């Protein structure tokens, strides 16, 4: 049965703390995918060093994020969860694919242009060739689907081109993967600036999954509402974006419809509504935070998860790598 499922794979850069926008917008739906797909997720630590990292922070974040993803519902019994640097085939196939990825193609990657503008003092080779490593990440597992956000579609497109180029020369080695655009979850906006998406770069408007309840409450109490005169809880994205955002969050965590929410807070002002949303979010995140902390404290468990994940992943990855090495003409050891 396992083998009949379509394969899905995604990499996650352990470069920042997860927040409510990540959770409600995407992560909370990931657990269910395992019913339909054979899913691989890895912490893309090799990718993070294209920009300078503090080593202790990188190590801590990698484990924290792994724990948080498990706490968000990615069951390690049902998904293959691993750390990219534990599976050397990524770097190995990455090198080979570097030689089948064109300078011109890499030069057109918008993320490279953006990141090199932002890190003008460290435009290193890895930043430039990163999409070839990403192609290797993907192609090693012969996945059918790669769930990615808008910003990564160009890299998946490049992966397809590289795979087709390789297959054209050597025969069918790689499955050509499709980008998988997940059904959009909630698009959570910043609490301090509802015109922009919630983002860790504006921390006052951002609720982190591991944040203390009192801090979460404070952020909701300070959430920007609207300077309209009616001061009532009514869903109007256009004219009341702050309230609409809070309603969306409240709806996403309680399952209530906008009409139900309007009724619930009928005749009450924002002073009642905002802390109520805060409470609901605190309660929604509490089990996640507690479970993530518990997992993180249980080093032996976490270790057993990423070891088993790496073992399963390298078994699959190695099959593809061997095939590639043989095709290009390397002598078998
Ligand atoms: N590049 C992705 C990002 O920045 C992370 C990533 C690395 C990835 N390898 C991948 C995503 C393979 C999907 C598949 O978010």
UniProtKB/TrEMBL annotation:
It is found in: Cytoplasm. Keywords: Aminoacyl-tRNA synthetase, ATP-binding, Cytoplasm, Ligase, Nucleotide-binding, Protein biosynthesis. PROSITE patterns: AA_TRNA_LIGASE_I (PS00178). Coiled coil: none annotated. GO terms for biological process: tryptophanyl-tRNA aminoacylation. The keyword rRNA-binding does not apply. L-tryptophan binds at residue 137. InterPro entries: aa-tRNA-synth_I_CS, aa-tRNA-synth_Ic, Rossmann-like_a/b/a_fold, Trp-tRNA-ligase, Trp-tRNA-ligase_bac-type, Trp-tRNA_synthetase. A motif ('KMSKS' region) lies at residues 197-201. A motif ('HIGH' region) lies at residues 14-22. The keyword Ligase applies. ATP binds at residues 13-15, 21-22, 149-151, 188, 197-201. Homodimer. This is Tryptophan--tRNA ligase. The gene is trpS.
């Amino acid at each position: 049965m396992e083998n009949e499922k379509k394969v899905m794979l995604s990499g996650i850069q352990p470069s920042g703390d997860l927040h409510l926008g990540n959770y409600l917008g995407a992560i909370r739906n990931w657990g269910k995918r395992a019913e339909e797909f054979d899913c691989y997720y890895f912490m893309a630590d090799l990718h993070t060093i294209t920009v300078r990292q503090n080593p202790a922070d990188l190590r801590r974040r990698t484990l924290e994020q792994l724990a948080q993803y498990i706490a968000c519902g990615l069951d390690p019994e049902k998904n293959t969860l691993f750390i990219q640097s534990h599976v050397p085939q990524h770097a190995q196939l990455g090198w080979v694919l570097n030689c089948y990825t064109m300078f011109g193609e890499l030069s057109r990657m918008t993320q490279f242009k953006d990141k090199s503008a932002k890190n003008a003092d460290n435009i290193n080779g890895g930043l430039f060739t990163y999409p070839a490593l990403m192609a290797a990440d993907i192609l090693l597992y012969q996945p059918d689907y790669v769930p990615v956000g808008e910003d990564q579609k160009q890299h998946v497109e490049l992966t397809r081109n590289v795979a087709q180029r390789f297959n054209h020369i050597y025969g069918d080695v790689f499955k050509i993967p499709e980008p998988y655009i997940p059904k959009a979850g909630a698009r959570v906006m910043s609490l301090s600036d509802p015109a922009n998406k919630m983002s860790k770069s504006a921390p006052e408007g951002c609720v982190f999954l591991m944040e203390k309840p009192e801090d979460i409450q404070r952020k909701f109490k300070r959430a920007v509402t609207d300077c309209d005169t009616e001061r009532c809880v009514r869903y109007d994205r256009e004219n009341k974006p702050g309230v609409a955002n809070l309603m969306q969050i409240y709806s996403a965590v309680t399952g209530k419809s906008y009409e139900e929410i309007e009724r619930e807070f009928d005749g009450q002002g924002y002073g009642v509504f905002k802390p109520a949303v805060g409470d609901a979010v605190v309660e929604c995140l509490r089990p996640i935070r507690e479970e993530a902390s518990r997992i993180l404290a249980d080093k032996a468990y976490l270790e057993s998860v990423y070891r088993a994940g790496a073992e399963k992943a390298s078994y699959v990855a190695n099959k593809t790598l061997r095939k590639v090495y043989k095709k290009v003409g390397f002598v078998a050891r």
